[in-house]
From TrEMBL:
Gene coding for it: GLA
Record protein name field: Alpha-galactosidase
Compartments in which it is found: Lysosome
EC numbers on record: 3.2.1.-
Source organism phylogeny: Eukaryota, Metazoa, Ecdysozoa, Arthropoda, Chelicerata
CDD domains attached to this UniProt entry: GH27 (cd14792)
Signal peptide span: 1-18
Cellular component terms per the entry's GO annotation: lysosome; membrane
Keywords linked to the UniProt accession: Disulfide bond, Glycoprotein, Glycosidase, Hydrolase, Lipid metabolism, Lysosome, Signal
Subunit-level organization: Homodimer.
Amino acid sequence: MAYFTAIVLLILPFSVFALDNGLALTPPMGWLSWERFTCNTDCKNDPDNCISEKLYKDMADRLVTDGYKDIGYEYINIDDCWMEKERDKDGKLVPDRERFPNGIKALADYIHSKGLKLGIYQDIGSKTCAGFPGSYGHFETDAATFAEWEVDMLKVDGCYADPKQMDDLYPIFSSAVNKSSRDILFSCEWPFYQHAAGMKPNYQQIAKYCNIWRNFYDVVDSWQSILSIVDYYITNQEEFVAAAGPGHWNDPDMILAGNFGLSYDEAKAQFMLWAVMASPLLVSNDLRHIRKEFSDLLKNKEIITVNQDPLGKMGKMVQKNGNIEIWTRPISPLSKDGKYSYSIVVFNRNTLGSVTNVSIKLDSIGLDSPNCYSIYDVFDSEHVTKYCPQDTLKIQVNPSSASMVVAKVLN
């Protein structure tokens, strides 16, 4: 296993010493059960939607058959409610015997046979949020168990734990996982619980031990929830931008496209904003029953390419005019003189009215390369136009929606 080494990110106002396990060099992509299926354990009456090995196999099949895997979605993530209420006589976790009759290792084998990776859930406290056995007091045992089961990602929640102790508990568990026999992406909720307790998280410390971390409350299937997360990120964007980079990412929570609460335009806005914020793209929906427009959105290669940009620089809001926000993210390629290319998102918070026409003078948002840019819309990448810093880019955006263009710097 890899050990912790110092990675100095030259763009940061301070040095972040990051978890160096070779994982999450770009934001992880995949599927996670929680928002859509929560803690449904009633397999007798609802066999297609309960937390069971069938659900995760079904979603793995859909990732492969429907083309998600081919464009980067690779994790199938189990969330809470997968285990028995008690550990076994040796203190080991036990998957629910009825809902996971073949065990987690057999499920991992199935997921791996599809060319995918398996994630699982635990808690740093004495219980999970749904009341199942937590890992407190069992960190070494659970890390070894997950490695034995060939798990690839571990999401560690923070219920039933004192936020004041998390600066000690998360590093202990992360170190145990990192010293196990398997490379396991470590996802934590450390900063969220400290934020909720009125504490100020130390992101330099968190980045030493977590590949991704949740900053804010759980997303729920509503536009208001998305807006609250975006507002929190804007308020803290300088700190969040400084903490993010290859191997360590802010996680604003799951992608909701294809569920019940968001219109297509709202889902498009979330997906574009998460891409420009260099966020994990972990969708939580029913891939067996998703409308084509949502599926096509989630498979938009240009948006995903922005999200997966190897430079690993998180974007931020750079301009605001009423309910119109301009977000930019530096991306590759760079020009010979070191100027970045950019993704640009225009976010329209207006809920009423018609299409808004937005004019953007490129140098006003930091695009100042004298060599100019080739710019295209992420839904029409073949239509490319040259713009220079003094030029004005005009973009149309629907209410409660967003538009995204890519501006590649010219040499």
